[in-house]
Design a protein that fits this description.
The protein is of the alpha+beta class. The chain has 16 helices and 22 strands. The strands form five sheets. Strands 14, 15, 16, 17, 18, 19, 20, 21 and 22 form a nine-stranded antiparallel β-sheet that branches. Helix 7 packs antiparallel against helix 16 and helix 12 runs antiparallel to helix 13. It is globular. The model has no long low-confidence stretch (mean pLDDT about 95).
Length: about 500
């Protein structure tokens, strides 16, 4: 129970009832962990007071936004700090950036930015529910990362409450606090190790993003919190860069006879500089098993290639040239040049994905531990057949989709969760696939994070030397290990 002295200080509510704890014991993952209590702070002072209380007693604290994490990032046996209720203000929309509290839902921000002709490009599929704080903690991205990058690329400044209750503004234009100041010499002394050990990919949400902290001899300490999953501090305010909404977009939709012919076409597609290249394939499943009568479902591997910009004529030329280049390899293609048609096609793809993620066959369910790997796109012709070979070895049905233009593959095998061999199969899949990913200098997580499911594989991916850096960083920022323990290190 909370001390009476602290209760008198807090403006927010402390919930210890079974129902509230039950709601906060789950997220979008397969895990369930009951917290000891749920705290709903009303202001920053509430957050600092609760952090001080937990720090003195070494009680774990985990910030929670929309609860859309796929890997148990927001689950804890300690105190859940629910920032979604009161930390949900869009404070200021500027010409080039936006100042928000971490509980703002991405779709709500999108709606307000659109009025100004602006947008924040990272577009996770959970945008209707996920919060900006969660997106930062996860380094979220989405379909348009190919052109625009991930959340880390838009993060300009953060207000953070550390585990001991101290408050700091973190960014390139503010003097670094003692934690961020201690981090800088460590990073500079290990730049060679970091460059050699990190993924050769355009996306990564695994580990701590030490590779992004120094650019052209400039220091960007706020980026250490991107993808850190709340293990270094609780974000209470964020400034994010925004960009202009492109005036036009065109979508090229192509079906291929098989995945091999599709993969061979990726280099040609990328040469036309699209803004998004998305894959949808049912693998060894048939669309008939996924409700064949639904519009948008097809047995053929399908790719969605988007072009966006300010000149419709230029975009039409790009799309036509790309379509011509694929004529010999695809079995059908269609160019959509108005937003209504483009949105309809994207919605069909989204509906198809919903069918995939909900699909079950008796006790067989789509399991997601290897669902977010990424390799350099030039290596897809080697990597995807490797995954298919493993699935064939275990005689597993599977689905495959994702942001193939970045080399980011979302694939889920259907595994009998009631089988006594289920855990063993999952462990073998993860070990084999993650070993291959490391050999190809990819990442075990492009955008979904590590959480409870993948944190134990971080050392395997980065190696012992870089993992030791992660341990040291955790010690610098959270020496009592109360900030979302069990994630990352």
């Amino acid at each position: 129970m909370i001390d009476d002295d602290l209760m008198r200080k807090l403006r927010g509510k402390v919930h210890t009832d079974e129902w509230t704890r039950l709601i906060n014991s789950v997220d979008a993952s397969h895990f369930q962990i009951n917290p000891s209590m749920v705290f709903v702070p009303e202001d920053v002072t509430d957050v600092t007071n609760m952090c001080q209380y937990a720090y003195e007693r070494e009680i774990p604290l985990t910030a929670r936004g929309g609860g859309t994490g796929l890997l148990g990032q927001a689950l804890t046996q300690g105190i859940v700090v629910d920032i979604s209720r009161h930390f949900n203000r869009i404070i200021e929309i500027g010409e080039r950036d936006v100042l928000v509290e971490p509980g703002v839902v991405k779709a709500v921000l999108d709606k307000e930015l659109k009025k100004k002709g602006k947008f924040l490009p990272p577009d996770p599929s959970s945008s209707n529910f996920c919060t900006l704080g969660g997106m930062i903690a996860n380094n979220s991205s989405g379909a348009h990362t190919l052109r625009y990058g991930s959340t880390i690329d838009y993060l300009e400044e953060l207000d953070v409450v550390y585990s001991d209750g101290s408050i700091s503004t973190v960014g390139p234009s503010t003097p670094p606090d003692h934690r961020c100041g201690s981090l800088l010499p460590m990073i500079f002394s290990k730049l060679g190790l970091i460059a050699a050990s990190y993924p050769d990919t355009s996306k990564n949400s695994s580990g701590f993003r030490l590779d992004a902290l120094v650019r052209n001899r400039s220091y960007y300490p706020q980026r250490v919190f991107a993808g850190a999953e709340g293990t270094l501090g609780i974000i209470t305010k964020a400034k994010l860069r925004t960009v202009d909404i492109p005036q036009f977009e065109i979508l090229l939709v192509c079906e291929f006879q098989d995945l091999t012919s599709l993969l061979l076409s990726i280099p040609r597609i990328l040469s036309f500089h699209p803004s998004a290249v998305e894959l949808l394939s049912f693998g060894r499943l048939s669309s008939g098993r996924l409700q064949h009568n639904e519009k948008g479902l097809t047995d053929f591997p399908t790719i969605y290639v988007e072009f966006c910009g300010e000149s419709l004529t230029t975009l039409e030329q790009q799309a036509d040239l790309c379509r011509s280049a694929l004529r010999q390899s695809c079995i059908s293609s269609e160019v959509l040049s108005d937003r209504t048609s483009c949105n309809a096609a994207w919605n069909e793809r989204r509906n198809s994905l919903n069918h995939i993620l909900r699909f079950s066959d008796g006790n067989k369910k789509a399991i997601g531990i290897i669902e977010d790997t990424v390799v350099n796109p030039s290596l897809l012709e080697e990597y995807i057949p490797f995954i298919q070979g493993i699935y064939n070895r275990y005689k597993l049905d599977y689905v495959m989709y994702g942001h193939i233009g970045n080399g980011n593959i979302h694939t889920r095998p259907l595994i009998d969760v009631q089988s006594t061999k289920a855990v063993q199969i999952i462990e073998h899949l993860a070990h084999d696939v993650f070993s291959k990913v490391r050999d190809l200098r990819g990442s075990i997580s492009a955008e979904h994070g590590d959480g409870l499911a993948r944190s134990r594989y971080i050392k395997q991916m980065f190696g012992a030397d870089v993992y030791w850096l992660f341990v040291q960083i955790k010690e610098i920022f959270d020496k009592k290990n109360i900030m979302n323990p069990g994630k990352k290190v």
